[in-house]
């Protein structure tokens, strides 16, 4: 229960462009967002502090935990390691962009059903990472545990639990939901 | 609503799950009122000493920096009960990382640049940060954490050890451990119309409200603290942390809302840690394995500003029957950050040592380690003599052994090999006490038959909302969809902290009491008036009563490891935990908690290590790149099961706490399995390749 009624604001009174600030456009979850931001602003801080998209989480701010994972042009990235200004023109998908209205994405459904979360702080990053990971495997990208010759050239890599565990190890979960996370992704993997 | 009432135990999906999987659940640093400023902590760069000068001109010149708080200009506060909160009040530096300034700026980028531009000069003193068994500053405190007596003696342990036919005398060494919840500690504070409102990442916002009120001279009705969603805590958010005091101070000074997040690398200095321990365990037994004596002595550290004593010798007081027993805690104050609660304080570290020693005794006697434990089951609690309300250890050991296929093992060490892998299995017991704290709750029914239950519980990922709705629905005799649960604000009826595995029992008892009182009120007849009917209840009386029973949850862990004989790498192939924790109230979320505890125990065993650098004077592994919490690939076949207990001496739900027991004993089971696999008995954690390789 939130008994403090705080009106959230975004993009309030952004200063104009200067030597230290630029105006640029990010394509986020299907809509164009024009921003004027400090060149030091990371993509993560742009989302959280300037666009009201706090689904991507700041767990370490150093690319060590994966809580800030989003998709940039379809690839999973640690958004804390990217400068927002350098993403001009990129298509960015965050956790807020996965559901279709009230209809959850199958990965979101699976995480809910498998109880693949506890505190929920790593969860948006886990789900975005899983989405990117499924595409990587479908595109035939091998992982450290992929046996040579498993996939036909250019064909998809089959995802068993070991493959999923290896490919999801960039996303830490201190609550220890890993077994359930793997089950949830197995439910959705082809 | 057409659903049947959801009985307790049903695997109900967690209520806030949808918000969490869609990214709409808001945590403490995710509120952006107009005019929000960002505070960045400047940490001390000496381990001991005094500040002689702070130069803030360069920081104030950074564009966007609003102000810099130091001990020279920060608001004075009343001395808080917890000395870690007395920040920016004087020049003293009790340890490296202590906050010496707070830079407040219009953006995160400006705050960071400003913090780097603050120049602090110190008169630094020699520091001493290394715990040793015989440190000259070591003393015996009166009590250990949890209020337990530091020393307990039964019989004559020394004489019994001298006479016992078989003895084990082993010393185990554990470094510090860090909680590292995924959400860093954060607070957003705002003053408006004389009222302080705070979003805080806390395990108990009533305590934060009371603490801020005391420090700032405000009444309960002048402060509201909200902890709606909390990204884990594992004890580190169980007490208010400096960032909430800093945010409140800065908001008061600037007149604007201020958000302060603790950067990941600053957390080990500011949010507590599991204190390192040196533990000597001596066991004396007859040749049939019957224990004559259990002696457990621990040495640990605390900071210069507060006494915190990890109660690691406490579980030895209740685990096994023995006519003679000695359990002693000693502590030395060092120039280190203040230790505090980390998941199962006392039990997690103490049971590593005790359960490793039990394995050593089993090896010395040639008795199966499950059998050894079963032979030493006490009829009553060894320390107090009180009967157990229920004691499921034997059941867990037997059920676990059956499920795991334990008795297929060849007890000889290093007997199983697969190529270059050495395989082994290990077992250890687990225990955690049943705790209850006072809480209050209200239950309201509206004329449409819908209920609202209010209690300041905190959901740190446990599923508190969900299980409290189940408890309320069962007591009200209504489907749980008819019950709205309001938690996570200090404006609600007071709730105890989400800690000590006591949340569900404490809040649940209050919820059950309010709900049953409402049912009685409605049974008196009459119609529900337009404003509804509200009944409140508190559990001060229940919580103050001493139980005539010894009340504990128990469990057993079984692990199979593969040790690479070339690299020394240990992998846990499979791990099974079986628990006896009263009635399990939600099978889905309970399993997640048990498994979560076991994963953290796996980290304690294999990957998590924090080195205290004697020259630098601080922990060296402070971020997630150097302090290795388990990753997905570390966790393979990991299962949790439980034995239902029908215990009428607990609370109206018949439940024991489940949040911590999963970590207790896990590291010992893995260490015992490594010994079985390799023949090497390592007595310090984590079991990293550098420690194992000399034995392979």
Explained architecture:
The complex is a heterodimer of chains A (190) and B (696). Chain A has 190 residues and is an alpha+beta fold. Helices cover 26% and strands 14% of the residues of chain A. Chain A has helices spanning 43-50, 106-113, 123-138, 161-167, 178-188; strands at residues 21-28, 31-38, 69-72, 75-78, 91-93. In chain A, helix 2 (106-113) crosses helix 5. The radius of gyration of chain A is 18 Å and the shape is globular. The model of chain A has no long low-confidence stretch (mean pLDDT 93). Chain B is of the alpha+beta class. Chain B has three domains: 17-25 and 437-538, 2-Layer Sandwich (Aldehyde Oxidoreductase, domain 4), CATH 3.30.365; 31-126 and 179-270, Aldehyde oxidase/xanthine dehydrogenase, molybdopterin binding domain (Aldehyde Oxidoreductase, domain 4, 2-Layer Sandwich); 143-177 and 273-434 and 548-695, Aldehyde Oxidoreductase, domain 4 (2-Layer Sandwich), CATH 3.30.365.10. Chain B has 16 helices and 30 strands. A seven-stranded mixed beta sheet of chain B has the order 3-5-1-14-11-12-13, with helices on both faces. In chain B, strand 15 (277-285) and strand 16 (291-302) form a beta hairpin. In chain B, helix 14 (587-606) packs across helix 15. Chain B is globular and about 75 Å long. The interface between A and B is large, with 70 and 81 residues.
């Amino acid at each position: 229960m939130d008994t403090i009624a705080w009106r959230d604001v975004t993009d309030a009174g952004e200063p104009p462009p200067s030597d230290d600030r630029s105006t640029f456009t990010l394509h986020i979850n299907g809509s164009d967002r024009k921003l004027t931001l400090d060149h030091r602003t990371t993509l993560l801080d742009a989302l959280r502090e300037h666009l009201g998209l706090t689904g991507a989480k700041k767990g370490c701010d150093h690319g060590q935990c994966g809580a800030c994972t989003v998709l940039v042009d379809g690839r999973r990235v640690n958004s804390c390691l990217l400068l927002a200004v350098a993403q001009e023109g990129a298509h960015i998908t965050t956790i807020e962009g996965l559901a279709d209205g009230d209809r959850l994405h199958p990965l979101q459904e699976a995480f809910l059903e498998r109880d693949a979360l506890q505190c929920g702080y790593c969860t948006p990053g886990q789900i975005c990472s899983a989405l990117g990971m499924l595409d990587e495997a479908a595109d035939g990208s091998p992982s450290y545990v992929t046996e040579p010759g498993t996939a036909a050239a250019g064909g998809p890599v089959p995802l068993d639990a070991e493959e999923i565990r290896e490919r999801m190890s960039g996303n830490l979960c201190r609550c220890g939901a890993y077994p359930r996370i793997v089950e949830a992704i197995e439910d959705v993997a082809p | 609503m057409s659903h049947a009432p959801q009985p307790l135990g049903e695997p109900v999906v967690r209520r806030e799950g949808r918000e969490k999987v869609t990214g709409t659940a808001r945590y403490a640093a995710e509120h952006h009122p107009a005019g929000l400023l960002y505070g960045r902590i400047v940490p001390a760069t000496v381990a001991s000493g005094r500040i002689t000068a702070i130069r803030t001109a360069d920081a104030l010149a950074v564009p966007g920096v609003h102000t810099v708080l130091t001990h020279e200009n920060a608001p004075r506060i009343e001395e808080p009960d917890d000395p870690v909160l007395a920040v920016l009040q004087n020049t003293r530096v009790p340890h490296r990382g202590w906050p010496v300034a707070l830079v407040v700026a219009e953006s995160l980028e400006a705050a960071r640049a400003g913090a780097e531009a603050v120049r602090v000069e110190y008169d630094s003193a020699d520091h001493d940060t290394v715990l040793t068994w015989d440190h000259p500053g070591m003393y015996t405190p009166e009590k250990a954490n949890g209020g337990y007596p530091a020393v307990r003696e039964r019989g004559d342990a020394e004489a019994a050890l001298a006479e016992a036919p078989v003895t084990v005398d082993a010393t185990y060494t554990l470094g510090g451990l860090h909680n590292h919840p995924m959400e860093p500690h954060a607070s957003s504070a705002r003053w408006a119309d004389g009222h302080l409102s705070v979003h805080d990442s806390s395990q108990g916002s009533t305590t934060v409200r009371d603490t801020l009120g005391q420090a700032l001279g405000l009444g309960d009705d002048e402060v509201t603290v909200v902890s709606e969603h909390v990204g884990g805590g594992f004890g580190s958010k169980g007490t208010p942390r400096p960032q909430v005091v800093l945010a409140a101070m800065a908001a008061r000074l600037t007149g604007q809302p201020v958000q302060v997040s603790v950067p990941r690398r600053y957390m080990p200095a500011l949010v507590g840690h599991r204190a390192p321990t040196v533990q000597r365990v001596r066991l004396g037994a007859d040749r049939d394995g019957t224990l004559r004596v259990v002696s457990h002595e621990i040495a640990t550290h605390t900071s210069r500003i507060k006494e915190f004593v990890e109660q690691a010798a406490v579980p030895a007081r209740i685990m096994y029957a023995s006519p003679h027993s000695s359990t002693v805690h000693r502590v030395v104050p060092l120039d280190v950050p203040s230790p505090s609660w980390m998941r199962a304080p006392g039990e997690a570290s103490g049971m590593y040592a005790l359960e490793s020693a039990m394995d050593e005794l089993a090896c010395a006697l040639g008795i199966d380690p499950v059998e050894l434990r079963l032979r030493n089951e006490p009829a009553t609690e060894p320390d107090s003599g009180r009967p157990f309300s229920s004691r499921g250890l034997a059941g867990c050991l037997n059920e676990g052994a059956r499920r795991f296929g334990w008795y297929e093992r060849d007890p000889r060490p290093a007997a199983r090999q697969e190529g270059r892998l050495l395989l082994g299995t290990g077992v250890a017991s687990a225990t955690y006490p049943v705790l209850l704290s006072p809480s209050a709750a209200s239950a309201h029914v509206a004329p449409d038959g819908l209920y609202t239950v209010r209690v300041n519980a905190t959901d740190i990922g446990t599923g508190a909302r969900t299980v409290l709705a189940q408890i309320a629905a069962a007591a009200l005799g209504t489907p749980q969809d008819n019950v709205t649960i309001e938690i996570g604000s200090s404006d609600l009826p007071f709730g105890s902290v989400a800690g000590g595995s006591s949340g569900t029992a404490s809040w649940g008892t209050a919820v059950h009491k309010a709900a049953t009182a409402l049912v009685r009120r409605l049974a008196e007849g009459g119609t529900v008036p337009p404003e509804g009917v509200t009944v409140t209840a508190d559990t001060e009386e229940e919580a103050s009563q001493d139980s005539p029973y010894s009340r504990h949850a128990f469990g057993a862990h079984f692990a199979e490891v593969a040790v690479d004989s070339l690299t020394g790498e240990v992998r846990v192939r499979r791990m099974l935990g079986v628990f006896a924790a009263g009635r399990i109230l939600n099978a889905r979320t309970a399993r997640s908690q048990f498994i979560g505890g076991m994963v953290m125990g796996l980290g304690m065993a294999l990957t998590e290590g924090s080195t205290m650098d004697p020259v630098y004077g601080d922990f060296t592994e402070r971020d997630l790149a150097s302090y290795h919490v388990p990753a997905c690939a570390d966790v393979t076949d990991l299962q949790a099961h439980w034995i239902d207990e029908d215990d009428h001496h607990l609370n109206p739900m018949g439940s024991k706490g489940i949040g911590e027991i999963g970590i207790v004993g896990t590291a010992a089971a893995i260490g015992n399995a490594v010994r079985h696999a390799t023949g090497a008995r390592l007595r310090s954690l984590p079991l990293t390749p550098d420690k194992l390789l000399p034995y392979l």
